[in-house]
Amino acid sequence: MSEFTRRNFIATSTLMAAALANRPAEASAPTASKQGPGVYRYKIGSYQLTALYDGTWFRKIDDKFVRNATSALVDKALTDSFLPPGIVPTSFTPLLINTGAKLILIDTGTAGQLAPTTGLLADSFATAGIDPKSIDTILISHFHPDHINGIKDKDGKKVFPNAEILVPEPEWAYWMDDSKMRTAPAEMRPMFLNVRRIFADIAKDVKRYAPGNMVASGITSIAAYGHTPGHTAFAITSGNESMLVLSDVTNHPWLFARHPEWQGIFDMDANLAVTTRRRLLDRAVADKMLVAGYHFPFPASGHIVKAGSGYDLVPVMWQPL
Amino acid sequence: MSEFTRRNFIATSTLMAAALANRPAEASAPTASKQGPGVYRYKIGSYQLTALYDGTWFRKIDDKFVRNATSALVDKALTDSFLPPGIVPTSFTPLLINTGAKLILIDTGTAGQLAPTTGLLADSFATAGIDPKSIDTILISHFHPDHINGIKDKDGKKVFPNAEILVPEPEWAYWMDDSKMRTAPAEMRPMFLNVRRIFADIAKDVKRYAPGNMVASGITSIAAYGHTPGHTAFAITSGNESMLVLSDVTNHPWLFARHPEWQGIFDMDANLAVTTRRRLLDRAVADKMLVAGYHFPFPASGHIVKAGSGYDLVPVMWQPL
User: Fold this and answer.
1) Nearest residue of A to residue B253 by CA position?
2) Cys-Cys crosslink for B317: which of A235, A297, B2, B114, Cβ 3.0 to 4.6 Å?
3) Domain CATH code at residue A44
């Protein structure tokens, strides 16, 4: 056998391709234009959970993306994970919980408004065989656009018309306060306006919960402030099993779990966000809890382990039901 | 906020469940009985690859599973990865390559004959929108049942009737040799018989290749002996991209990449298998090549990094096309 190296393969392949250049044959199946469906199911006690992929935003970053790390360090974290530098592939995975009595959706995706490679949630619902009309409850973790935009379609119509919508009280208090909008930095104004676009005309139907309380059968909200003023995580418990839904406590785990002290540009109170991150990740480690992370690589769940001065995600292993 | 611990969640949830015990409501969607489809697409140059999940065999292991490690050590490797002890979740993921001119399938799955949680390949083909009749070429890595059984259905009919079947010459020479069958340990006899069940009546149509040569446009076979006498890996190259298909060089990476010296019961020449494993994993590390592993957790590809005295898999991050 000749020595196999990447270089040899490519040299041989180029020769072969030249030899075949005039060949007219075509494979009897065309190249597919879409990724396979992003639907992954698992159980917590008697509850069935379904991770529903909404897509990935290939976010171009500059040296402001992490306030307290150079872009060279961020790029190294990306390339060490075999990702290209300068781009953070930020994925979005709302989580559906079927308690047997209720269908509960945590966060609602981007409605395709962040990038052409997002907005797959409707496809994922279809693959899962779930009609959005059958959702009973929507739990919102916080008011960033990638979590609330999916409440409405592009025409402003409710995507989940029969769902009661539950939002964190301190999140509502902050974003719906016109004086906060007036005094916030100018670049935050679109986010305030977006919150109004989603909630203003349905305000009377939106229920506000105080983080720390049970918000649905088996689902407890957990104050996880810092990322936003009312950012909320959740614990889901059924039988003697439980899991921790981290929401945006940690953005991409290969950056912010490994470097929990990094202050992402999206963390509004960066110091509090770091404290919250360590508190919840330490809890996940201590209790060996399964966790879900909204921006974790699909299927967006796994376990947290200590690794060096930070943490690492051990992704769930894809299994049949 | 009250302290959140796993114990508190469960206690609260039990109270809540008792309170709701008489509640008659049911969610408007039933619990799903199947996992989401296991279809994942990616590109190597102009080639489109599709990982097609065939299921997972929850293999109960005893202290003979690894010849040179105690079951306590194997169990620790499992529980360190948050898997239950005593069971190796062995998944099967054939790989489809659309070169633009040909549809090539590497290995064919279990035909559902290993466990009720296997045999999903036909579903995965359907989800991918590919008719098995359109497969042009089947490349077989070796003759273990989970790689060849999918060539035929339960009635002995060819599943891929229009595909030419290419197998490693030394693999054919070993398993089709009746004298080898007679002198092999009794427990190997069913495997010899299974090879005959699959190949005897189609022998004239089976082409044998010498590992080390190009077997299809852009696909080079690589002798990777040890797991079986003719076990073969592959390199796939298109444009200036290439990847390494490890076949069974490494079984579950959380066991055998992390502990490359472990001699699994399935490795026929265990010393040679260990040497081959280190040789190919070292190559993957040196060239930073994307790899696929037939028994890696779906979508069964990623990159290999050095970790301690062994290696670790950095799984691919699920992305849109």
Assistant:
1) A317
2) A297
3) 3.60.15.10
Specify if A27 maps to a domain: no
Q: Domain limits at B92?
A: 37-315
Tell me A258's DSSP state: T
Nearest Cα to B245, choosing from B139, B151, B174?
B139
Residue B306 is assigned to a structural domain of this protein? yes
Tokens representing B301? 């590809």
The model's pTM is 0.93
The ipTM value here is: 0.92
Instruction: Report if residue B273 sits inside a domain.
Output: yes
Q: Is residue A161 within 8 angstroms of chain B, CB to CB?
A: no
Write the residue in B38, B222, B298 that is nearest to A1 by C-beta.
B222
Burial label, A227 (beta-carbon count in 10 A; 0-12, 13-18, 19+) = buried
B186: phi then psi, degrees, rounded to nearest 5: -50, -40
Mean pLDDT per 10-residue section of chain B, whose length is 321 residues: 56 50 63 95 98 98 96 98 98 98 97 94 97 98 98 95 98 98 96 98 96 96 98 98 98 98 97 98 98 98 97 97 90
Count how many domains chain B has: 1
Residues from chain B contacting residue A37 (CB–CB below 8 Å): 36-37, 39, 127
Output the pLDDT for position A249.
98
In-domain check, residue B77: yes
Of the candidates A210, A264, A209, A202, which has an alpha carbon nearest to the alpha carbon of residue A66? A264
DSSP code at position B250: S
